[in-house]
Design goal:
The complex is a heterodimer of chains A (about 200) and B (about 210). Chain A has a 4-stranded antiparallel sheet with strand order 4-3-6-7, with no helix packed on it. In chain A, strands 1-2-5 form a 3-stranded antiparallel sheet, covered by helices on one side. The longest helix of chain A is centred in the last third of the chain and has 33 residues. The radius of gyration of chain A is 25 Å and the shape is elongated. Chain A is α+β, with helices and mostly antiparallel strands and about 200 residues long. About 10% of the residues of chain A have low confidence. Chain B has about 210 residues and is mainly α. Chain B has a single domain, classed as Arp2/3 complex 21 kDa subunit ARPC3. Chain B has 9 helices and 2 strands. In chain B, β1 and β2 form a beta hairpin. In chain B, α1 crosses α4 and α4 runs antiparallel to α5. Chain B is globular, with a radius of gyration of 16 Å. The chains are: A alpha+beta (about 200), B mainly alpha (about 210). At the A-B interface, α1, β7 and α5 of A face α2, β1, β2, α4 and α7 of B.
C-alpha cells in the first residue's frame, strides 16, 4: 500500500510539475532556399551556443564543420546532391544527429544523380515559367520561411512533449506485463500442484 | 543519466546488451509470484520518477530510484528497470533502443550491488537502522551509476576522469535527495510492512 501511495503521489507531482523538460540534446534542420538552417538545443529550452556541428556524407566522410551562434543557430550550404548527416557531440553523452535527405536539398541539387558538386546552378533551376521574376520568387520564399519558422519550432517542441496520456499508457503497459507475469507464474504453480498430486 | 543512441561505440553497446540480457534472465528466474506486484510498482516508480525533471543550476536533474528498486527486488530489479527504460525509450525518446542494454546495466547493476550491501541491515534490524542503510544504499546506487556511465563513455573514447567528474558532480544533488527519499521509503516499509524484505530475500535465495 505504501508503494501504491508513493506511486499516486509521483503521478500527481508528474502532472502538476510540467514535466516537459528532459535533458536531451536536440538537433533540428530546416531547408531554407539554397541553405540549410539548423538549431541545437537541450530539451529543457536552453540552446547550445558555440557548439560544433559536423556534417558528414553517408559513408562518414567529414564534409564541413560549422559552429552555432549564441542562440544555437547555424547555417550550412550544401554543395552536393547527396544525403547529409549532421552530428553534434557536446561531450558526456550528449550527442544528437539529424539527416538531410536528398529530397529536402535545395532545388538545384535535388535531381543530381551523382555526388558531383555544382555550386552556382541552384538559382538557375528554380522554375522560371511563372509570372514572378527570380527576385520575387526569392522574396516570397524568404517571407514564407519567416512565417513557417515559429511553426517548425513549435512542432519540434511538441515532439518532445510528455503528455499525461503517454505516461498513463506506459503505466498500463507495466500493469499488463505484471498480468502476463502472473499468468505464467500461476500456470507454473498449477502444473507443479498437479505433479505433486 | 540515460546515454543516447550514437554516443557509444558498437563494442560497448554490444557488451552492455549481452550483460544486460544475462542480468534480465537471471532476474526473471528470481522473480517469484510474490515479487511481481513490487516489481511492477518499482518499474512504474522508476518510469515516472525519471520523467520529472527539476531544473537545477545549468542543467536539470531527475530521480532514478534504482537504489530502492535494487534493495527491494534484488536481481529482479533488472527486468523491472529494463521495462521502465524500454517504455521511456519508445514513448519519450529518452536514451534509445540500441543503448537499452548498456543503460539497463548502468542503472540496474548498482541496484543489485546495493541489495547485497544492505540486505542484512534491512532484514533483521530496527526500522531506524533500515532507514539509515536505505539512505546510504539510495545515494550509493546513484554514485555507482554515474561511475558506470562515465566508464561506458570512457570505453567509447571519452576521457574517463573529466567525464566521470562531470557526471558525478552533476548528480550530487540527486544523491542527496535520493538518499533521503530512499531512507523514507525504506523506513516506511520497515515500519508498515517489514515482511516485504523477508519475502524478497527468500525470493533471492531460491
Amino acid at each position: 500500500m505504501t508503494l501504491l501511495r508513493a506511486l499516486v503521489l509521483f503521478c500527481l507531482v508528474a502532472v502538476t510539475a510540467q514535466t516537459a523538460s528532459a535533458h536531451k540534446l536536440i538537433l533540428s534542420i530546416y531547408p531554407a532556399g539554397a541553405m540549410v538552417e539548423g538549431e541545437i538545443g537541450f530539451s529543457n529550452g536552453d540552446m547550445a551556443a558555440k557548439a560544433l556541428v559536423e556534417i558528414f556524407d553517408v559513408d562518414g566522410k567529414l564534409l564541413k564543420q560549422v559552429t552555432t551562434d549564441e542562440e544555437g543557430f547555424f547555417v550550412f550550404e550544401p554543395k552536393a546532391g547527396i544525403r547529409h548527416v549532421f552530428r553534434a557531440d557536446l561531450g558526456a553523452g550528449h550527442v544528437a544527429q539529424a539527416i538531410l535527405y536528398e529530397e529536402d536539398l535545395p532545388v538545384g541539387l535535388r535531381s543530381d544523380t551523382s555526388g558531383q558538386t555544382n555550386e552556382s546552378n541552384s538559382k538557375k533551376a528554380v522554375v522560371v515559367d511563372s509570372e514572378f521574376s527570380a527576385q520575387q520568387q526569392d522574396l516570397i520564399a524568404e517571407a514564407l520561411r519567416r512565417e513557417i519558422r515559429p511553426l517548425q519550432k513549435e512542432l519540434a517542441a511538441y515532439k518532445e512533449k510528455n503528455d499525461l496520456q503517454t505516461i498513463l499508457g506506459a503505466l498500463g503497459y507495466i500493469l499488463g506485463l505484471c498480468g502476463i507475469g502472473f499468468y505464467f507464474m500461476a500456470r507454473r504453480r498449477l502444473k507443479d500442484g498437479k505433479d505433486a498430486d | 543519466m540515460h546515454i543516447v543512441d550514437g554516443a557509444l561505440s558498437t563494442e560497448v553497446v554490444t557488451g552492455g546488451a549481452v550483460l544486460a540480457v544475462a542480468g534480465i534472465a537471471y532476474g526473471l528466474k528470481h522473480l517469484s509470484m510474490e515479487k511481481i506486484p513490487a516489481a511492477g510498482m518499482l518499474s512504474a516508480t522508476f518510469f515516472v520518477a525519471s520523467l520529472i525533471h527539476v531544473p537545477l543550476g545549468p542543467s536539470s536533474i531527475h530521480l532514478i530510484m534504482n537504489g530502492v528498486a535494487g534493495m527491494i527486488l534484488g536481481w529482479a530489479a533488472f527486468p523491472a528497470l529494463f521495462v521502465g527504460l524500454l517504455l521511456q525509450a519508445v514513448f519519450f525518446g529518452f536514451g534509445g533502443i540500441t543503448v537499452l542494454g548498456i543503460n539497463s546495466l548502468n542503472i540496474a547493476l548498482p541496484g543489485v550491488l546495493v541489495f547485497y550491501l544492505c540486505r542484512s541491515a534491512l532484514a533483521g534490524g530496527s526500522s531506524r537502522k533500515a532507514a539509515i542503510w536505505g539512505g546510504i544504499g539510495g545515494a550509493f546506487a546513484i554514485s555507482l551509476t554515474t561511475l558506470f556511465v562515465a566508464f561506458s563513455l570512457a570505453l567509447s573514447g571519452d576521457e574517463f576522469l573529466p567525464a566521470a567528474k562531470f557526471v558525478f558532480f552533476a548528480h550530487i544533488p540527486v544523491m542527496v535527495i535520493e538518499g533521503l527519499l530512499s531512507a523514507a521509503a525504506i523506513y516506511l516499509i520497515a515500519t508498515a510492512k517489514p515482511e516485504l524484505f523477508s519475502i524478497m530475500q527468500r525470493g533471492a535465495e531460491e
